[in-house]
Design a protein that fits this description.
It is a single chain. This protein is elongated. The protein starts with 11 loop residues before the first strand and ends with a helix. The longest helix is centred in the N-terminal third of the chain and has 25 residues. It is α/β, with parallel strands linked by helices. Helix 4 links the parallel strand 4 and strand 5. The strands form three sheets. It has an eight-stranded mixed barrel with strand order 11-12-14-15-16-17-18-19, surrounded by four helices. A five-stranded parallel β-sheet has the order 2-1-3-4-5, with helices on both faces. The protein is built from 21 helices and 19 strands. Helix 7 crosses helix 8 and helix 13 packs parallel to helix 15. The protein has three domains: about 130 residues, Response regulator (Rossmann fold, 3-Layer(aba) Sandwich), CATH 3.40.50; about 140 residues, Alpha-Beta Plaits; about 190 residues, Alpha-Beta Barrel (TIM Barrel), CATH 3.20.20.
Length: about 575
């Protein structure tokens, strides 16, 4: 069976000449390769160009004609956004007219009389090929929705500006739509496209008044490379107002990051900085615009250095696990019952690096699992060492980050530590922050339940920080609640804060789990917590976090007190 072959539709060519013989000669030359239509004057030609603009591959245009000459047609086409991409080859015998037509935007010319048929075919074919290639490039060059440059073309042109005009002070501006996926989900993709198109239009209007280019960089991010502008907040408000006007039902929040020009700095580096500044105001409803400054630059350099140095820090044991004791305060005197493992970094050049400087950084970039694995191993080894050396098994709590909880190898790695150091599962308690339970709650609860089934105890850290709802607590798999230290800080001065602490303790009684109060610093706080029924306390009142050697002395001292009390 022979399959029918689908024929490609021939390319459409418009021949415009007031002389019928000229139209016939050109038609005869081209008719075997193209579909031909004709016009006898400029006015008729312009009407046909407008009607056939989506199909026209090229126009062969005579310059000297009645009613409307070819120059007027060229002028009309080149000033019409919908028509100017159609290539025009002028037909003329006048040399001066050729130059003028080319200056007005003609793609090529064919001289009269039409006696070199192969040359005419070659020129028409070349111009059509070049035009189609240019159209393909333009399709990739611009985002069809916003009419802004696509990402790759944007950076190509930005780099050219930087290279050829280094004296221009060009700023990098990033505009981002907060939670754009939710805008689409709640209002539909069509509405989301209207939002994007409106933002694109406002940015194009802004660039009409200042030198620069712009791109729709990602689905919800726009990049602007423009000469320094005095008031970017006004631009942000202008775009925000335009978006707000689209609907009074949808709440859409824009944020902006700006990286001011710095001599010699390439665009890609500037936009990395602007993007970082924009990220810093994510979810911050007090400010929506951040300008990248020297302080942020130094912080980024520090962050990059810490990320680069982490592997060496692990290999060279620059990281040290400190231990903060937890005391059972429902006995007299309070008794050391367990500890929390806390990481410290003694950098060989930077000195002691605060955990507040590197823990959030590694949580954001995923390297926190490297730190956590190091802490787990050190804590398990230390518990085993104290058991052998002092005859005491003191449980230690270690942190599980979100990255850890969703790691499919988590259970095997923890089990490996238990087996390697010969410990019971109860010797290593696992802390998970309350906020982590709201990220994919079902998967989180399933994983935590499996860990508990193996014998590990789970402590919910930072409880009361406001992430989980009370009805979630009834099915959350937990063994201990750790009360957020913000609750404890003002209980001696604020009756309201103390009532909140009592409420947390009541919830724990309902769940039949003990409570650890963090951040206890004064005897008055301790007495109030003890009287309210709090089980365990940690904080500076008893001890700061201690290095292993100092904590060992604390264990020895506790054992001596126990012996003295027995005698």
């Amino acid at each position: 069976m022979i399959k029918s072959k689908q024929l490609k539709r021939p390319q459409l060519v418009l021949i415009v000449d007031d002389q019928e013989i000229n139209r016939d000669v050109l038609g005869m030359i081209l008719e075997d390769d193209y579909e031909i239509i004709y016009a006898s004057n400029g006015r008729e030609a312009l009407q046909m160009i407008e009607e056939k603009r989506d199909r026209l591959s090229v126009v062969l245009l005579d310059l000297i004609m009645p009613e409307m000459d070819g120059f007027k047609v060229l002028d009309c086409v080149r000033n019409d956004e919908l028509l100017k991409s159609i290539p025009i080859i002028v037909l003329t015998a006048e040399r001066n007219a050729e130059l003028r037509a080319l200056e007005m935007g003609a793609a090529d010319f064919i001289t009269k009389p039409f006696d070199m048929h192969e040359v005419i075919l070659a020129r028409v074919g070349r111009i059509i090929e070049l035009s189609e290639g240019r159209q393909l490039i333009q399709a990739a060059e611009f985002d069809p929705l916003t009419k802004l440059y696509s990402r790759n073309f944007f950076f190509e042109y930005a780099n050219r500006i930087h290279q050829y005009h280094p004296q221009w002070h060009m700023d990098a501006v990033v505009v981002n739509i907060e939670q754009f996926h939710s805008v689409n989900a709640l209002n539909g993709r069509e509405f989301g496209d209207r939002v994007l198109a409106a933002i694109g239009e406002e940015i194009r209007d802004f660039l009409a008044e200042t030198e620069g280019i712009a791109s729709r960089f990602e689905a919800d991010r726009f990049d602007i490379y423009c000469q320094q502008h005095g008031d970017y907040r006004a631009l942000l408000e202008q775009v925000q107002d335009r978006v707000n006007a689209l609907s009074n039902k949808a709440s859409i929040r824009l944020r902006m990051g700006v990286a001011p020009w710095r001599e010699g700095l390439e665009p890609v580096v500037l936009f990395d900085s602007a993007g970082a500044a924009c990220s810093m105001v994510r979810g911050n409803y007090k400010t929506r615009l951040m300008v990248y400054d020297e302080e942020m630059h130094q912080r980024e350099l520090m962050n990059q250095r810490l990320m680069n140095d982490l592997r060496r820090a692990v290999d060279d044991k620059e990281l040290t696990v400190y231990y903060q004791p937890k005391y059972n305060v429902q006995c007299d005197p309070p008794r050391l019952s367990s500890a929390e493992a806390l990481i410290r970094w003694n950098h060989p050049e930077l000195g002691m690096v605060s955990p507040g400087s590197f823990i959030p950084l590694f949580e954001n970039n995923g390297q926190i699992s490297t730190v956590d694995n190091y802490v787990w191993d050190e804590a398990a080894r230390q518990v085993a060492e104290w058991r052998q050396k002092l005859g005491v098994v003191l449980p230690v709590s270690v942190n599980l980050s979100r990255v850890d909880v969703f790691d499919p190898t988590l259970e095997d790695r923890l089990e490996g530590l238990i087996e390697r150091y010969g410990l019971d599962h109860s010797a290593l308690k696992l802390e998970v922050t309350e906020s982590a339970y709201t990220d994919n709650a079902e998967q989180m609860i399933e994983r935590i339940s499996r860990l508990r089934a193996r014998g590990f105890e789970i402590e919910m850290d930072d409880f009361g920080s406001g992430y989980s709802s009370l009805n979630m607590l009834s099915y959350m798999p937990i063994d201990v609640l750790k009360m957020d230290m913000q609750f404890v800080r003002n209980i001696a001065q604020s009756e309201k804060d103390f009532r909140l602490v009592q409420l947390v303790l009541d919830i724990a009684k309902y769940l039949k789990v003990p409570v650890v109060a963090e951040g206890v610093e004064t005897e008055q706080q301790l007495d109030m917590l003890k009287g309210a029924g709090c089980d365990l306390v940690q904080g500076y009142y008893f001890s700061r976090p201690l290095p292993p050697e100092a904590f060992e002395e604390l264990i020895i001292k506790e054992k001596q007190i126990e012996r003295e009390n027995k005698t």
